[in-house]
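Hey,

The postdoc asked me to send both predictions to you directly instead of through the lab channel. I've kept everything plain text so nothing gets mangled by the mail client. Protein one:
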Amino acid sequence: MAYSPYFVRNLEYVAARWGAVDMVDLAPPLLEKYIAQGLHGAGEELRLSSHFQPIFSLAHRRPVGYEGLIRATDSGGRGVSPHELFSKAPHTEARIALDRQCRALHVRNFQKFGNAGSWLFLNVDPQVATEGPRFGSFFAEMLKSNDFPAHRVAVELIETPFEDEGRLTSAVEYYRKLGCLVVIDDFGAGYSNFDRIWRLRPDIVKIDREMTRRVTVEPLARRMFTGIVSVLHEAGALVCVEGIETEAEALCAIDANADLIQGDYFAPGSSGLLPENARSEVFARLITGHRADFAEFQKRQHMRLLPHLAAIKNAVQDLSLGAKFQPAVQGLLKLPSAQRCYLIGSDGLQIGANVEAESKVHSQDQRFEVVQPTEGTDWQTKPYFRRAIEAPGKVQITRPYLSVLGPKLCVTLSFAFEASDGTQQVLCVDLDFASLAGEDIAFGVSSLHA
């Protein structure tokens, strides 16, 4: 198979079909020039350079890594976007060559700064990641020639459709064995989903920019965001929220307990690196503001819950003295947000039927009638039951969750007490989360107890 002159000139490969390929010539002039195939086969020379966008640790409030971003200009000084640049190398070998050249350029330029601690994030197309190893040990040799340790490299798999995920897994293991960090980019977009997370076991997951934007404008996305970050943590990955452009997006990342944060709001890509304390004032303002907002939110939430807390204690007192269930909980069910009350025995089984708030009796969703709780329904696996049993005499409060009674989020208050017959029972009341939260519905769901 004959290689194009542009492929040979850029990386000076001498190869036969599917044979081994020598390492790219790392001479500086070659790395900064790319000969792209232009119209009618004419060669188009582009000049390449590196920009580095800082990635901050929220805990440390300083840059802990930088993403290498390729910049290209043509002979007339016109900027060429990365997408346009790589479209000029659509075929496997040419694309691998350009990808390698960009990575080598970033490593060489980053090493010049003498930063001995930060990670360097290098973007790799999954197609290139799977095809590259069969052309030799370029990556390991390139790092060695630049005296750049592999443990400081974060190989970032960009989001793109790829049919053979098995080969991608093998390619990821190649980088992992070198000692590199593995990063999944644009999680939540296209092919970067939980299936890819479970298969590739990345060290870092970057949240898609569109998801970051939506959490600031859609309450449902905001409520889900904290859970998504939590699941990614459970999968063993640090979470980076990227593409942050506004203070609201930054606050959402803080509220969701992200580990890393990146975006033009903090610093755009640049040809140089930031001082460690360059954004300390921004982080101080954000953290202080978030702490104040959170404290105010908790205060408002506590004030809303006070009547319910007092009413559930009154109901428990009546029940412990032998009062009938329905009359004992009527005061509780007349309060705003209250949906229903039910009793659970110490064995976790429901005692009797639910008592519904009068305003809800005629608004039941018939689609969920088949899963309506009845006497004997087993609640022993529910956190609100277990926590109440473990701490009798104290009101327990759940985070918002989807009720089995319908597609609505609710919050459950539970209270374990000794009934008049000497048995231990748990009184539960479900509250409508939207009604309880009011205008705060999009704010910090994680603030409620788990």
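Protein two:
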Amino acid sequence: MHKTWRHLVPAILLFLLPAISSAQFGISLSVNVNVAPPELPVYEEPPLPAVGYIFVPGYWFWDADVSDYTWIPGTWVPAPEPGYLWTPGYWGYEGGAYLWHGGYWGPTIGFYGGVNYGFGYTGGGYEGGYWQGGQFFYNRAVVNIGTTNVTNVYVKNVTVNNVTVNRVSFNGGPGGVQAQPTAAQLAAEKEHHLPPSSEQVKQAETARSNPELRAKANGGHPTIAATPRAAVFKGPGVVQARGAPAHPAPAERASAERPAHAERPTPAAHPAPAHPAAPPHPAAPAHPAEEPRRPPAEAAHPAPAPEERRAPAPAAHPAPAPRPPPPPKKEEEHPEPRGS
């Protein structure tokens, strides 16, 4: 049994390594993309959940299964060992394509492309805290302590120098951050490193299963930009990017369903009467049609009569015709007999 387990462990590791490398940190040559990653979203850091946790900033991961970038939210994770810090991964433009350089844990922060991930990761090093005597000291000027009871704290304002202050998420090439590793950063790459923890891998896998975190769905503004703990995508502490829609995926579904719903009411209730309402205006000639209707009503009795009365009226009935002119004639006739 013991021998069987010893043979199974390497097989399990071989099965897990490709998923871990592609999902979270990846060997630099394992992910090669011809499309530039989107800009980094703007979001707030969730409160520190517990002492000893270090914030791992979010990043864009290329998911070949859907041919799109997926946002892996930033999160708080415990350091794998005291004294270890996280060096974020980064995209680098090389040979006409974008290459992913995986992140790692180590005693010294290495080169991560000069990308300003925020929250202490200004493009070079880490300003959110440091290790001393096996304990981590947090910089209140950078870290969101929240309500966690932390005794080892200090305040150091961070000034970003010689770093492009923007949301660019890759190094080199057209539009990328133009930064080169320093001698100290190159030396840090040769130190002992640890891969992303199981919690970081779980965070990446959970993000990949959420269609709302894909760039095509959120337009670079994910609704889940950072989480208080790994794989906790709902509840207090979950932060969305600024300018992110409330529910991008449902919105797309709603837009897709709107034509169907619009077609149902269109013929039945509102749009159908609304569009004929425009023809009713041409049917305004129908209103003149009502005017002819009135004459025909008069034509039944007065219409033919007025036409005939106007002609025969002076002949058949002298009284109406003579009324205007005759009164003066009659007045002339009466005074003559009065004078005689």
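Summary for protein two, as requested: Residues 17-248 form one domain.

Thanks,
C.
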